Model the fold of this input.
Amino acid sequence: TNLIEIKNVNKIYDNGVVGLKDINLNVKKGEFLVIVGLSGAGKSTLLRSINRLHDVTSGDILIDGQSIQHASGKALRMMRRNVAMIFQNFNLVKRASVRRNVLSGRVGYYGFLRSSFGFWKKEDVQHAVTALKRVNLAEKFYDRADALSGGQQQRVAIARALMQEPKIMLADEPTASLDPATSNLVMDDLKALNQDLGITVVANLHNEELALKYGSRIVGLRDGELIFDKEADQVSESD
Ligand code: ADP
Ligand code: ADP
Done:
């Protein structure tokens, strides 16, 4: 079954730049999809369309059979809860503790209130510990986020994303600011979520080697167009 359906999607930015051109793409539950392409190819634009960080210009995007592009209010919030995202620059609150950063991933009105005031239910704290264990950082619970290495910060961001119990994890160049060894640790964590929790992963990677190592399927973009879509073991040099 298709968890994500992208149908005839075009994205033209306000300044006239074409971000995406007639994209059609289905992602099945449990896939580890990697999107490759040069800088400016539209990878980020595509990812941001999936959780509707921005609206597309035409076409539709369905999550679990429901249009996120046409959803609003509570329905949209519920859909977004199923779609977590991590970024190249981690987006942690640097001066706050790891604990506080992870707990802030608990979404919803009460989650927001608690993250502002620092009150948490026992079950939320337990959940945060479990999430940090999944990225092998339980011992960093009380450390300040900016005391951690880049790779550790990205893994905290993954733990924070897990707090919303997502079905889909979007990763926008998650390793772009990391060295190769650390990149592998971050990708290993994403792979584990995919295999152990059944979370569907869609990751933008410009590093070909990582794309081939971790992706079960590789999609190529160029100038906003989808130029190939293959199982990882069928990708050849010419792609
Ligand atoms: P990638 O992630 O593959 O590097 P992007 O999706 O960031 O590519 O960019 C695709 C194209 O859209 C590029 O030409 C880029 O300059 C343009 N673009 C991205 N974001 C914006 C924006 N907010 N406003 C206008 N153009 C944008
Ligand atoms: P990426 O690393 O994905 O290529 P960029 O460094 O191109 O991203 O863009 C960084 C930010 O600037 C993003 O928020 C993107 O949406 C925005 N942006 C990119 N290109 C343009 C553009 N041509 N006009 C306006 N904003 C842009």
